[in-house]
Amino acid sequence: MIIKANIRDQFQETELHVCKDRMDDEVRRIVDELHGMFDPTINGMDEVGNRCVIRPAEIVSFYAEKQKVIALGVEKKYTVQKTLQELETEFESCGFVRISRSELVNLHRIKSLDMSLTGTIRVIMQNGYETYTSRRNVTHLKERMLAARKEKRTEGSV
């Protein structure tokens, strides 16, 4: 492995590049480690009362329930001490999008959209969780999904 630092006035932000002739386990591990180091996290409390640090990639949805904000993880639920508005602002860059007044979903965890229902669209997540959005939110949701898909393709080629 070769590690280089390239310090020049032309760079305004820190850039990290992982270069190799193909995508393999080593590249995936390095990229995952970098994400773990630099991605934002959120503090939460699991159902038993243990305090946890949660990565956005582990979250399927944030939703309001009984005056609390719940972070639905792949396997667990967590209570978080932030409002949906704060979470939307903080995690928009991580792929979260608002689908209703009371819910944000992780675009990277959407399995499919079912538009067979009249007036509402069922959003089916990879872990089997199902939620709903109205037709007025679909345009923004689709735009964000297409943008995320293009971004993912670009990352895969790096």
What does this molecule look like?
The longest helix has 23 residues, at 135-157. The protein has 158 residues and is α+β, with helices and mostly antiparallel strands. 28% of the residues lie in helices and 32% in strands. Strands 2-1-5-4-3-7-6 form a 7-stranded antiparallel sheet. The two termini are 16 Å apart.
Distance between the termini: 16 Å
> How would you sum up the major sheet?
7 strands, antiparallel
The count of strands amounts to 10
Helix content: 25-40%
Approximately how much beta-strand content do the residues carry?
Answer: 25-35%
- By secondary-structure content and strand pairing, the structural class works out as alpha+beta
- List unreliable stretches of 5+ residues: none
Mean pLDDT: 86
Evaluate the radius of gyration.
18 Å
Total DSSP helices:
3
SSE arrangement, N to C: HEEEEEHEEEEEH
From the structure above, extract its key features.
158 residues; alpha+beta; 7-stranded antiparallel β-sheet; 3-stranded antiparallel β-sheet; 3 helices; 10 strands; 32% strand
A few lines on this structure:
By secondary structure, the chain is of the alpha+beta class. It contains 3 helices and 10 strands.
Task: Note the topology.
Elements: H1 25-38, E1 42-46, E2 51-54, E3 59-65, E4 68-73, E5 77-80, H2 84-91, E6 96-100, E7 103-106, E8 110-114, E9 120-125, E10 130-134, H3 135-157
Antiparallel strand pairs: 1-2, 1-5, 3-4, 3-7, 4-5, 6-7, 8-9, 9-10
